[in-house]
Write a structure and sequence with these properties.
It is built from seven helices and ten strands. The chain is an alpha/beta fold. A hairpin with a 5-residue loop joins strand 1 and strand 2. Helix 3 crosses helix 4, helix 3 packs parallel to helix 5 and helix 5 runs parallel beside helix 6. The protein binds adenosine-5'-diphosphate (2 copies). One of its GO terms (biological process) is cell division.
C-alpha cells in the first residue's frame, strides 16, 4: 500500500511540483500516471522511492513513513521498490547476468542463490539466451527487459516505472507492457508514468492524471484523456 497525505514539493528554485497530493494505492494495483510535460509526474513518483523528499506531508509505503526515513535507511527501502527508467540505466561494463545480479550481490546473497534468482527473472523477461551479452549488444527493448529483470530480482512489492516505453518503438512497447502485466498478475503493485495514449486506452487500469502538481483525475479503467 502506498499512501500520500497532503504532499507538497517545492524545489530550491521555487518551482512547486506537488501542490497538495492525497492518494492511496492498494497492494497489487496497476496505476498509470499521466499528464502534460512539467505537470509533476516524475516528482510524484520520485517521492515514492525517495529520490526526492516532500517539502511537507507524508509518503508512506508499506507502513514506512518515508518522510521520517534516515539517509542510511534509504538503500534498504530501495530494495523493497523496483525502479525502471526510460533510459534503462544499465551498467555498460557488466553483462546482462551481472547487471541483474548486482542488486543481489550488494546484499551478500550466496552465489547459488544469486544464480537461481537471476536465471528465474531472466526467464520471465525472455532473456535467458542473452545472459552473457553486454548492454551495447542489445536492442532498446532487450535493454529495457534487463532493467525490468533487475527491478524485480529482489521480489519488491512495488515497481515504479518512469516512461518505460518512452524510447521504444510501438511493437517493442507492447512487449514491455506484456512483461509488466505478468509482473502485476503475480501480485506486484505497478506505478507507471507514461505518455503512451495507445497503451493506456487499450490495457485498461487505474489512471491518475496530474496537472500543475495536483491530481486532476483518478479513475479506474480511465482513458488517457489528452490529445498527445
Ligand atoms: P533523472 O535522470 O533522475 O530523471 P532529472 O533530469 O530529473 O534526473 O534531473 C537531473 C538533474 O537536473 C538533477 O540534479 C535535478 O535536480 C536537476 N533538474 C531537473 N529538472 C530541473 C529543473 N527544471 N530545474 C533545475 N534543475 C533541474
Ligand atoms: P513531469 O514528470 O510531469 O514532466 P516533473 O515532476 O519532472 O514533471 O517536473 C515538475 C516541475 O518541477 C517542472 O516545472 C520541472 O521543471 C520542475 N522540476 C523538476 N525537477 C526539478 C529539480 N530538481 N529542480 C527544480 N525544478 C525541478
Amino acid at each position: 500500500m502506498i499512501v500520500m497525505e497532503d504532499v507538497y514539493k517545492k524545489y530550491s528554485n521555487g518551482v512547486v511540483a506537488s501542490n497538495g497530493i492525497n492518494v492511496e494505492i492498494p497492494t497489487g494495483e496497476f496505476v498509470y500516471v499521466v499528464g502534460p510535460s512539467g505537470a509533476g509526474k516524475s516528482t510524484f513518483i520520485k517521492m515514492m522511492y525517495c529520490e526526492e523528499r516532500p517539502t511537507k506531508g507524508n509518503v508512506i509505503i508499506d507502513g514506512v513513513n518515508l518522510s521520517k526515513l534516515k539517509k542510511r535507511e534509504i538503500p534498504l527501502l530501495r530494495r523493497k521498490i523496483g525502479v525502471v527508467f526510460q533510459d534503462f540505466k544499465l551498467l555498460p561494463k557488466l553483462n546482462v547476468f551481472e547487471n541483474v545480479a548486482f542488486a543481489l550481490e550488494v546484499i551478500e546473497e550466496s552465489p547459488s542463490q544469486i544464480r537461481k534468482k537471476v536465471n528465474e527473472v531472466l526467464q520471465l523477461v525472455g532473456l535467458t539466451a542473452k545472459a552473457r551479452m553486454f548492454p551495447h549488444e542489445l536492442s532498446g527493448g532487450e535493454q529495457q527487459r534487463v532493467s525490468i529483470a533487475r527491478s524485480i530480482v529482489n521480489m519488491p512489492k512495488v515497481v515504479i516505472a518512469d516512461e518505460p516505453t518512452g524510447n521504444l518503438d510501438p511493437e517493442t512497447s507492447w512487449e514491455i507492457m506484456n512483461i509488466f502485466e505478468r509482473i502485476n498478475k503475480r501480485g506486484t503493485t505497478i506505478v507507471m508514468a507514461t505518455h503512451n495514449k495507445e497503451i493506456v486506452n487499450t490495457i485498461r487500469h487505474r489512471v491518475i492524471a496530474i496537472e500543475g502538481g495536483l491530481i486532476t483525475k483518478d479513475e479506474y479503467g480511465g482513458d488517457y484523456g489528452y490529445e498527445a
